[in-house]
Amino acid sequence: MSTVNTFIDLLHQTHKAEWEATPKIQDAIAWLDNLFEFLFPNNRLHKKETYIGILKKNQIDLENILLSYLDPEQVDIEETVAAFYESLETIYKSLRLDANKINEFDPASTSVHKVIVSYPGFYAIAVYRIAHRLTELNIPVLPRILSENAHRNTGSDIHPAARIGVPFMIDHSTGIVIGATSVIGNNVSIYQGVTLGALQVAKDLAETKRHPTVEDNVIIYARTTILGGKTVIGKNSVIGGSVFLTKSVAPNSQVFNTHQLRIEVKQPLLD
């Protein structure tokens, strides 16, 4: 029994330390959902006179989340929260440009609104832009909780520390991985199954650029893998499907997998 009590003491102390350093996941996701609903209302149209109140409540919720696990003596929570909401208009305008690009590029889309309310790729980008701003403000843990929620719901794993320009398009969403030190320029489109990853994974490379740079106006098609912090995909390039790259590509390039599929049609047997 003493062994069990010792184990329980260990659990309690470990859980207490971890709980004190982590926001409640349900509170974080509720805050994100309310913010997304404020920016892109779907279930109901807000009355104009209620916008300020809705935004203020969302701001208070973020303050309470940060207060639940951050030390106010080390982080100016009020200033940090104010800085985030001062950025909200810029985030919103960027997301409208992202949605417009998806609508213009995807032949299956019939409106920007359809993209906003139903496209997992757009939602993944929206959560990324929110989480990225929180990361820029040096808020720990919370951005990762938000990005993992988007990962679970959309299949796109975008690290909030990655730098992604505007507009940005993700088509189909499933299986996309964008590493923490990835840099993506403006007007880039990527398809399902694309990985922007590291050549190797090692803890001592934490402060090293490990993931690729993708310059402006690049299209990367499905199931392509691009690895390495020194790998640069030059502007205006097209990277075809199922390509594996670990070296840079010059601007205006077209890169395709040369594997050829052979199809033979057998003649029917004669009676």
From TrEMBL:
GO terms for biological process: amino acid biosynthetic process. GO terms for molecular function: acyltransferase activity. It comes from the Bacteria. InterPro entries: LbH_SAT, Ser_AcTrfase_N_sf, Trimer_LpxA-like_sf. The keyword DNA-binding does not apply. Keywords: Acyltransferase, Amino-acid biosynthesis, Transferase. CDD domains: LbH_SAT (cd03354). This is Serine acetyltransferase. It comes from Larkinella rosea.
